[in-house]
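Let us work through a complete example step by step.
Step 1: write down the sequence.
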Amino acid sequence: MHPAVHISPLTASAPVVSALAQLIIETVAHGGSVSFMHPLAQEEAVAFWENSLQAAARGERIVLGAYDGEVLAGTVTLQLLCPPNQPHRAEIAKLMTAVHYRGRGIARALMLEAEQLAIAHRRTLLTLDTAEEDGAAGLYEGLGFQRSGVIPDYALKPHGGLTGTIIYWKRL
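Step 2: predict the structure and record it as tokens.
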């Protein structure tokens, strides 16, 4: 990872929301399966991140940002709010690295920080899913996540066509 990159929890502000919106728009445009279709409208991206950061302010999740100086290079969300019978579990969502920063270890660093925060919040199990095609399976398996299985035709890819999703888990 680039030595100038630092990772910290994000809170709602116009610059943070704008940077997150641009990151998810870029991710979707480049085929990232993060729940949205291409083209992703600015207003839709902004609304998503405003809602996500409001949930973070309520303690339901932690949205991490990896910054290279003032530039948002990546993000991941640790979802802490689970049903009452699952207080030991958290879910990883929306792991994204800006195209210009890919291959520099930022996604790995974000995941490791999310794991440490999960432990600090007394979570002992992490779950996540990733697209079967062009997802981050290699990254997750390299971090010790165990593959549970594949759900075929789970979601539309951002530019159309169906893809399966791989379900992963990891004990902390």
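Step 3: interpret the result. The first strand starts at residue 5 and ends at 9.
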